[in-house]
Amino acid sequence: MSTYRTISSRNVTRRQFIKSATAAAGGAAAMLAVPASVRSAFAQGDEVIRVGFVGPRSGPLGVFGEGDAFLVEQFNAHMADGVQVGDKRYGIQLVLADTQSDPVRASQVAKDLINGEAIDLMLASSTPETVNPVADACEAAGVPCLSTTAPWESFYFGRGAKPGEPSPFKWTYHFCFGVGNFATLYADQWSKVETNKTVGVLLPNDADGNAIRGLLLPELEKAGFTIVDPGPYENGTADFSTQINLFRDEGCEIFNTFPFPPDFPVFWRQAAQKGLAQQIKICQLAKAGLFPAELEAMGSLGYGLHAGAYWHKLFPFSSPSTGMSSRVIAEGYEVSVGKQWNQQVGANASLLDAAVAALASSGNPKDKAALAQALSVLKAETAVGLVDFTAGPVPNCATTGVVGVQWVKASEGAWEYDLNIVSNADHPFVPTTADMTAYTLQG
Amino acid sequence: MLDALIQGILLGGYYAILAAGLSLMFGVVRFINLAHGDLAILGAYLVLFAVEVLGLSPWVAVAATLPIMALIGWLLQATWFARTVKGGFLLPLLTTFGLGAVLQNGMFGLFGSDTKSLGNHIGNLSWASWQLPFGISVGQLPVITFVVAVTVLGTLQLVLSFTRLGRAIRATASDPEAAELSGIDARAVHRAAAAIAVALAGLAGAFLAMRALINPYAGPAQLIFAFEAVVIGGIGSLWGTLIGGIVLGVAQSLGATVSAQGFQLAGHLVFLAVLGVRLYLAHSRNLGGWRSLLPALKPGRKPAARLQHATSEGRS
Fold first, then answer.
1. Which residues of B touch A237 (CB under 8 A)?
2. Is pLDDT above 60 for B309?
């Protein structure tokens, strides 16, 4: 047997190695810790409200949190004088935590914020995998929590609430769209282009897919659409010929899907190979197609795809907590991050807006019960429009609107795609910016 | 049905490229590389980098990336894998698992979590198709992938059968120490095998990126398919890997015609069935007795050029 040189033969002893490795790791940890808690002018004393802000900022969902650093910077500048609550002024200190896109980690960082950082209010954003574990930790610890960007059904029913029964949640509040919004939106958006009203649906066997199958499809049938459903499939499927042949043979002219996002290009490319994409007039994406990068990866096949958006650069709303209009948020994000704006920046801005409004109306933001009470009746102007917990579908939840959008080849500017607002039935305060066109291969 | 069969066979071509490297590493170096899927994604990102930043054409970029991936494989084997393989059976699993995590997070750090695809850089090829009789259409990209799979595996098989390196690889796979006694540098052979394996992973990653979307965390899902193809086809056999990939792809697409949910399930079931049969046969051989005669009664089950056959006795 031949021998290899070991580490010690290179004049580095084990002790030295451990020493330098520890120093390097410690240094790295210190580097990471500094931006994790961003401190405002009111960093000391009782008069500072500590707000935990949990989101996925690395890992597969990291794209959802890409704008957070920019938003926090703007927030700290704009809220440097704090918030007026009654006749008293409080500073606000945001404490950021990263879930690394992992629900278990999300629960852990939420507990760390509650126990170690003594936060007064928790904020959570982006997907049920982030929102639900954080909300559960807050519910258990009796800390007020406000969250957004996960269908409210998955927040409410997904955490054990039962339809028709009183809400089991005392501390956790959530605002976002739900299945009802899609029913309103699709009935309007799909009437904008002449079709045979036959809808092929591709819904995976996961929480979202099954919720949509159970709740949205009956609504669409009531609205006069014929549904062709090949049944649930597993995420990560690499060949969709069965579904494509069914949709093609049934003559579907509308296609609707709530896929695990990486599966969509596989499906759509194969649909183009097999002649289905040439027959579809409306290709309505949900869950996929939120971010420009996904569309860029589709190349010319992406021109003309339809989707829903919970925020848009041209929303006629402003974000009071960051002091920016929707357009300024989008442009500031593009300068700060160097990528095209995406919907999530505005949604996260709206979370900060609603949080500040709740703090201001709480009477005493240091009193957790008072703050939870304020959340339960919160009415706040935000970047995504009015958030109104008094009108919600169920207690603890408020809905916000979704507009129908279409990705089109940009006629000018630095980016490949433009996002036109083509339907506003679910969000009437938002003006449409273009007429919807049928999908045609390569735009 | 015929359509599902054709699509499944074409899909099998991709699985075969993906699995060939894993199979080679296991057959020759006796090393289970859990980072194989992540290395495939790394290859895809290198191709994307060459296309988007350096402005190369996609096929040139693939050709340029393969030697780089081979170098990475060579270095990994020389500096890392060879050491861990001495630490027992568990250590390679642990270290390559860790390597996978490092690759995932390293790619996240370098390229961000945006999903990427090569499909938008190859024009219409990602969705262009040829029309066949009976209303069947086959995508051009899957056909190209399949042809490349057959070509690459065929070339490798020729290399293994007729060249000096091939003989050295087969000898080392069979018994590294005896090979060294005969003047073969087993460590160099292992490095060569690792270089080929990682280059193949990169090629598979490039095809994946053309067909689908990739992100830094897409590797482990691919590893599962690679493993299944290897086990179905027989470890260490290149043609077996192609057959394994095709069987997996056909099982998946036929499963999907039974039920849309059957796509992955059917693949997993075939994998488990083959694994069960293999374990049973190995078990019977070890027991001896009348059951050991069963495989011997079917001479067709022992193709002569199989590496696996040789490796099963070669462990010192």
1. 252, 256, 263-264
2. no
Q: Is A356 helix (H, G, I), strand (E, B) or coil?
A: helix
A145-192 pLDDT, tens digit per residue, is: 999 999 999 999 989 999 889 999 999 999 999 999 999 999 999 999
Partner B contacted by A58 (CB < 8 A): yes
- Percent of chain B at pLDDT exceeding 70: 91
Say whether A270 and B127 touch across the interface (CB within 8 A): yes
Burial (CB count within 10 angstroms: exposed 0-12, middle 13-18, buried 19+), residue A176: buried
CA angle B152, B157, B158 (to 5 degrees): 100
Q: Do A61 and B113 touch (CB under 8 A)?
A: yes
ipTM of the complex: 0.79
Contacts of A291 in chain B (CB under 8 A): 114
Sequence spans of domains, chain A: 38-177+314-399, 180-309+402-423
Separation of alpha carbons A393 and A164, rounded Å: 11
CA neighbor of B176 nearest in space, from B85, B74, B306:
B85
Query: pLDDT digit string (tens) for A42-76?
Result: 444 568 999 999 999 987 788 899 999 999 999 99
Q: What is the pLDDT of residues A365-391, one digit of tens each?
A: 999 999 999 999 999 999 999 999 999
The two tokens of residue A365 are: 């933001």
Find, among A235, A262, A257, the residue nearest to A186 by Cα.
A257
Contact B202, B65 (CB under 8 A): yes
Domains along chain B with CATH numbers: 2-314 (1.10.3470)
Tokens of A137: 């930790």
In this prediction, residue B311 has a pLDDT band, given cuts at 50, 70 and 90, of: very low
A241 to B253: CB separation less than 8 angstroms, yes or no:
yes
Longest dimension (CA), chain A: 81
* Sign of the alpha-carbon torsion through A310, A311, A312, A316: positive
According to CATH, the topology of domain A180-309+402-423 is: Rossmann fold (3.40.50)
| Residue of A2, A238, A261 with shortest CB distance to B187 | A2
Alpha-carbon gap, residue A430 to A301, rounded angstroms: 28
- Does the domain spanning A38-177+314-399 belong to CATH 3.40.50.2300? yes
Residue labelled with tokens 């795809």:
A305
For A18, A280, A314, B226, the CA distances from A25, given in Å and listed in that order, are 10, 54, 45, 35
- Cβ neighbours of A234 in B, within 8 Å: 261, 263-265
